[in-house]
Amino acid sequence: MYVLGLMSGTSADGVDAALVDFQGNLDKPKWNLVNSVSIQYPPALREQIIAVEQGLKVSASEWTALSEEITEVYSTAARTCDPTGLARIAGCHGQTVFYRSPKKPLARGASWQLIQAPLLAVQIQRTVIYDFRAKDLAFGGQGAPLSPLLDSALIGAGSGWRGVLNLGGIANLTLIPPLNGPDCTRDVMGWDCGPANTLIDLAVQKITNGRLNFDFDGLLASEGEPDYQVIKAWLDEDFFHILPPKSTGREFFGLEDLEKRMLQMSSQDPKDLLATLTCFTACIVAHDLENIYRYFAIKPVELFIAGGGSKNSFLMEQIVKRCMGVKVMTTDEVGIPVQMRESIGFALLAWWNISKKPYSHLITNAERPSVLGIAVNYE
């Protein structure tokens, strides 16, 4: 079956679209990436998305206009990726503008992915499946990350534990048990590690007065000196000692958090700031892998990296340096373009939805498995 996957992440760069052909077993499908495109958000739209993610208060009419603009970009991405209409359905993530982690038993979690799904369905004339996180949250789960079981299905097991690291706005990590041996019956694991590009990008925008949105290839950071003492102190924060499942978002690692960390640094040189934040991301990943080995006796032999951060050479060098004994490469090595991992994943989730396949509750700590997503027909 041909399925469109549409995704925009916490970095709010734009919409990635993937046209995927799935066949065979739902858990271990044969799949082929037929086409993919990335459509950037216009600068003003991106700025507004980031502002509301940071808590900017807007009117009901402004929320409506924002959702319409986001939907238009999604529509453009879908039509560009699948101009002849091969796909029967489209799995649409929407743009995350709010996330609240559950604090059992006092409060349930919440996550808001902004999109006008009926409008999108009419515009692209396909059934749209969206709102993939709501039911898991209703059952007391984290609602995130959703990628671990998708990684397991798309990439599969190897001779040892495999890790899949996404370096988007937030870093999230999947661990896939080996094909054979005593660990082959263990469950897939996955969780959010903490900030990947959010703090780095916000820092670049702040120190360049908006002239740059990100540190291209890590060139600015590579010229700075990381403050390892402050990184060590940051890693002592409570979030980095919580064992999976756990999830987070820009609400926790956003502009307010950046400003707090800037005050804690010994050097105010912009390049030192970027070097410290970039090394912080790499240290978070290594720290989590150390904790997983300490508590669960799991150590991946391979680490496949995707997302925008995989294009940051300085960040990749720091991850390789800190994850000793792990073979680090990008998901390109297994046929998944680094920019398209999540859009391919949401195409798979849409296929699972119409096939009534439930998503495991073990990843998110929900009370029970559930079929994720809501379908909207275009007729």
Q: Hey, roughly how much beta strand do the residues contain?
A: 15-25%
The largest sheet is: 7 strands, mixed
Which class do the helix and strand fractions yield? alpha/beta
Tell me the CATH superfamily of the largest domain: ATPase, nucleotide binding domain
CATH architecture of the largest domain: 2-Layer Sandwich
Output mean pLDDT.
Answer: 95
Alpha-carbon Rg, integer: 20 Å
Number of domains: 2
Explained architecture:
By secondary structure, this protein is of the alpha/beta class. The protein folds into 2 domains: about 1-145 and about 340-375, 2-Layer Sandwich (Nucleotidyltransferase, domain 5), CATH 3.30.420.40; about 155-335, Nucleotidyltransferase, domain 5. It is built from 12 helices and 12 strands. It has helices at about 45-55, 60-80, 115-125, 135-140, 145-155, 200-205, 220, 230-235, 255-265, 270-295, 315-320, 340-355; strands at about 1-10, 15-25, 30-40, 90-100, 110-115, 125-130, 160-165, 170-175, 190-195, 300-305, 325-330, 375. The strands form 2 sheets. Strands 1, 2, 3, 4, 5, 6 and 12 form a 7-stranded mixed sheet that branches. A 5-stranded mixed sheet has the order 9-8-7-10-11, sandwiched between helices. Helix 11 (about 315-320) links the parallel strand 10 (about 300-305) and strand 11 (about 325-330). About 50% of the residues are buried. The mean pLDDT is about 95.
